[in-house]
UniProtKB/TrEMBL annotation:
Pfam families: MIP. Keywords: Membrane, Transmembrane, Transmembrane helix, Transport. Coiled coil: none annotated. This is Aquaporin. PANTHER family: AQUAPORIN NIP1-1-RELATED, AQUAPORIN NIP2-1. It comes from the Bacteria. It is found in: Membrane. Belongs to the MIP/aquaporin (TC 1.A.8) family. It is a multi-pass membrane protein. PROSITE patterns: MIP. The chain crosses the membrane at residues 12-34, 40-63, 75-94, 106-128, 140-164, 184-205. Its main location: membrane.
Amino acid sequence: MARKYAVEFIGAFFLVFTVGTAVASGSALAPLAIGTSLMVMIYAGGHVSGGHFNPAVTMAALVRGRIATRDAVGYWIAQVGAGVVAAVIVRAIVNTGRVATLHLAGHGLAAAFIAELLFTFALCWVVLNVATSKDHPNNSFYGLAIGFTVVAGAFAVGGISGGVFNPAVAIGGAVMGYFAWSTIWIYLVVELAAGAAAGIVFRAINPADK
């Protein structure tokens, strides 16, 4: 399991590091950089750990029955720890102060809630179908499909919720000052719930795929 935890740490680290530096640069192509980073890390480490790099995806895999609870906890620790380390390094090398902290309230909070719920579900749903389904035992497109789900979500709702879809990214973003700590719990609850929902729906639609 140490190998799997190490791979999860590396993948989550580079994902959050890319988020931090791409957002700080103000590039309109930040969503593409972030999705591409996730894609290549999945191709690099998916054969070892499954390439989750996201506590919500691990939650989906747990509910789907593809990871034990003890191992899921280890994944969560590695993913969140990587996010925090990446955030600290980003703050040390780039000016994150140029990015306004996102404070959620009123209609904006409800909109972010819905946006994060839908696209986190979509991300976890795609992961379960392309990376764990018995109908795709040896496919070569799983990393591309997962990475571009994040790209689509970030372009679609990045201006509403920040396009997080990942509790490790949410915590890392808060460390970098991109998200307000007072509302960070919303991301964590919504995203983990979306992951669980994706696992439940996958099992309901594919009862024979154990």
